[in-house]
Amino acid sequence: MRKLALAAAFAATLISGPAFAEYPEKTVNLILPFNAGGESDVSARFQQPYFEKITGQQMVIQYMAGAGGAQAWSQLNSMEGDGYTLMGINLPHTVLQPMEKDVGYETDDLVAVNYFHYTPNALFVPKDSEFQNLQQLIDYAKANPGVVTFSGSGSNSANQIGQTQFDELAGITTTYIPFSGTGPAVTAILGSQVTAGFNYVTSGVNNGDGMRMLAVASEERVKAFPDVPTFKELGFDLVGGAYRGIAVPKSTPEDVRKKLSDIISKINQNPEFIKKMEDAGFVLTNVPYGKMADFVAQKKKEYRAIGEKLGIANR
Amino acid sequence: MELLGYLLSALTPLNILMALGGVILGTVIGALPGLSATMAVAVLVPFTFTMDPATGLIALGAIYTGAIYGGAFAAILVNTPGTPSAIATTFDGFPMAKRGDGSLAVTLATLSSVFGGLVGGVFLLLLSPPLAKIALAFGPPEYFWLAMFGLTLISALSVGNTLKGLMGGCFGLMLAMVGVAVVGGDLRFTMNSQILLGGFDIVSALIGLYCIPVLIDLVATRDPHLQVETGNRGIRLAEAFGIAWNSKFNVIRSAILGTVIGVLPGAGGSVAGLVSYSEARRSSKHPERFGKGEPDGVIATETANNATVGGGFIPTLVLGIPGTPPDAIILGALLVQGIKIGPTLFTQQGEIVYTFIFGLLIATVLMLPAGLLIGRYAYKSIASIPKTMLVPTIAFLTIIGSFAIHSNIHDVQMMFGLGIAGWILNRCGFAPSPIVLGLVLGQIAEQGFVQSYLIGNARGDILGMFFARPISLGIVALAAFTLLYPVYAHRKKNRDLAKQAAENPGIDIISDAQASATIPKTGLLSQPRDMAGTIVALILIVICAWALSQTPAMTPMGSVFPTTIASVLLVFAAIFVGINILRKSGSGTVDPARDTESTPRRIGLVVAMGVWIAAIPFIGFLAAGILAFFALIAISNYDGLPAKSIVLHVLSGCVIVSAMYFLMAEILLIRMPQGTLF
Asked: What residue stretch is flagged as signal peptide (chain A) (predicted)?
């Protein structure tokens, strides 16, 4: 009887497959669809040492920038689905891009296994700006329609969505100036080239001395900036930003997807990792593989409504 | 003296070893077009987590600075910039190598790079916080004008051929607009093709436009690729020192320009190199020698591009805004180490930062012996290697390099397509450099323009945005000066000569005007009709018409630049066609050398490479590489090979291909396509 049980257990391990039991067995490649230095890069760099600690394998980061990420995402499913090719995935990008035009992939083609953090939008003004709080800025914008300029990263991006929603909620008209990434958009604020900027909270950490954060678009105040009010506190129902996760090619087996999602969730629970991320202004989320379908469906609905307002819901 | 203490702590044997290793690895990676410092640095970051932070950072900085320097090798020896920073190095470096001065050019590049790197590093060490302010003073209009300034170089690069140069430049600007627009988010000119979604990658365009024509012409004749220099003059260090000393103003100006442009997060090494080259040419006593192998051209570019390394770290460390991708990765590594970036970095975490800066300076100094040694062998081997090995090796490097950019076969296809187009255009009198300039500067120009317009429009002062900012005006003035000064200098020279001639009637002095009068002065219309150029111009007109037909579907933001550029190109092309219709058809002068060139071999090379690229996804990268290597040996072989030599070729072919494959797949961890074979 014991022999039989042993044999059964042995057979079970065989069936469950070595991929599950020992994944990952070698170095894992994480392809980021953006250039180095952005939020995707920094958060992946934070994960890197913990991934190695948990799995004993290295995670190598590579960059495949182009077309606002679409270059990489449109190729994801033609890559090898062995669990060793991972790709960074972002919201709202992967909903808005295929909604607007044919970029070579559809939102539902992409298999995200875990969305592990988001960076809330935040409204910044230069250090020596006359605006000390949000209301002053709104008053000025009301008196001078179109004159207030907001820098942000890219067109039809999380930043522009934030600006559009803010305009609507506050009943003002401002001008959005797209830049080629967070770096240039923040530089424009620091150098007072624009009145203000819609950027991610994370930008406030490195450039805290040069900019003032007037409000943040998160549910609760961000730990790194306990003094900065949320838009909600100030009476504007504005919560948003960019979500970042990890995706795999469609051909990746279910058990590997799950295992990978578990590893990422485990990193997310490491106190050291949590502290580093929160100090840098990231807000951790935990959307594991099991909850992915609901999460993406809900976000799709939300972004479609915004896309229609922006006039980019063409498809 | 606190700084001295940091210097001593940077000088541990391990740090020096890491710096030396980093510089050597960086130089090799930089010398191979397509492989970039970004890849090497990205792969090596995890190692720095386990190392002492300063040591790890020194290794990363050394690789970066080495790679920028290494780009000069490919530029000088095979006319292909190893990195975009070295674009302007090809202008004079390759002509120098062609005439047998390759080792001099390499030595000059080494000296200049070391000096530029040191200047950038010293500025980083001493003046970071004030210099970081420059980065903030540069707004969208300044970037726009800086790009325009870079584009003025087109007129200098196409003397006597200005219209074609301008058309090439506009065509490059059009290429830069393909893909998803950053400003406006439009999908432009992709013809619904997946390949064009991300636009034309600059590196893959550089490899294609510069290297493929070299290859095509290399197989067409029996002549060696480079002149072997007469006598064994070694690395010609003393001579190079002498030249650099005589050009000390050029060296210092280029180093300062490089540092300042390096500080600008949106510009980088390629812009710094081009601007310094342009300035060196303008202030030279012999501007006409530029482009034909003038050492000052190499000095200016190489000094400036290495100065951007130190300059680029200034906004990275002070503002947390990385100027280039390698800066960004190093910034990421710093953040993971728990270092807080910002103005306080230098005072509160001085130990790591200053150790890093000193490490960078040490690495730059080590570049001198390492570079001279590598340069000596690189030049010798490129000059003496038989063509039957050189052609397949370079061809393999073009494919590997363009593949490595994104691990993507699309980039290889694009590289090859642009290469063939570039060769044909070159034959029709359209040089590749204006096209490349347009492609490199197009995005900077467009973003700067549209952002300035939007901000100006919001403030109700569009003209003021473009023309009433002091830095902008300074750049505009400099650009105008660069454009017009050669005309003025030319006139003045002729006047002086005429005066001399008048004063000394007995001596027959031929002025430039008189000399040139024999050719173009009789008027544009009296030259023979340029059939090939006219056909290209007609094709460009069709392309412009198509592009203009696409613009109404775009957002206003996304369409303003394409509409403008396509219209301008249309006008240039129409003028060109008009002039040529009015010209008499003439036989033109056929270059007699062309008779001895072998067209079948050219076609053979193009077909072999085409099949090679098509076969990679099916039979695998390594298998296709080795097979194509043998095919190219056969195509470039002019004399019967003895059996022993064949064995040697086959063996070295396998070794070269496998070694490169190993470097890419195992060291840089680039994902290679898997075919049915291997």
From this structure: 1-21
